[in-house]
Design goal:
With 132 residues, the chain is mainly α. It contains seven helices and no strands. The longest helix has 20 residues, at 4-23.
């Protein structure tokens, strides 16, 4: 059984791949991308991936509200995937917000630069304080 941390990393990878497919206007099947990245069925991954895809406009609006002088589309693909899934998990799932923020920061440290780590931390912290 994979840990939630590993599953979040899988979610980030899947969302990253979907974003690349969209950007390049390539056809894709979310179920197939999930299967390519995760050999077992997992409801947590499906909830986050399909949830982010379904609520993308709302999630991006939330992110943009808290990104000071930035837009989520300006972030690199890994950073935007991390931020989107964290906002989704905080807003729609039962995971304690502090856990979501910590996990997002750890992913950001691994896949983005220091400036983006700080930005993701600030956005999620403000979102938690204002809306949770």
């Amino acid at each position: 059984m994979l840990s939630r941390s590993v599953l979040r990393q899988k979610c980030m990878t899947i969302l990253y791949q979907i974003d690349i497919m969209k950007q390049n206007e390539l056809p894709y099947d979310v179920e197939e991308i999930i299967k390519e990245n995760l050999k077992i069925e997992n409801d947590f991954v499906k909830d986050i991936v399909f949830g982010v895809e379904t609520s993308l406009k709302e999630i991006d609006e939330i992110a943009n509200k808290y990104l000071k002088d930035w837009d989520i589309k300006r972030l690199d693909k890994a950073g935007s995937a991390i931020l989107r899934m964290a906002i989704y998990e905080m807003k729609y799932m039962d995971t304690p917000p502090v856990v979501v923020i910590n996990e997002a920061i750890e992913l950001a440290k691994k896949y983005t630069d220091e400036e983006l780590v700080s930005m993701i931390n600030a956005v999620l912290d403000k979102f938690m304080k204002d809306e949770m």
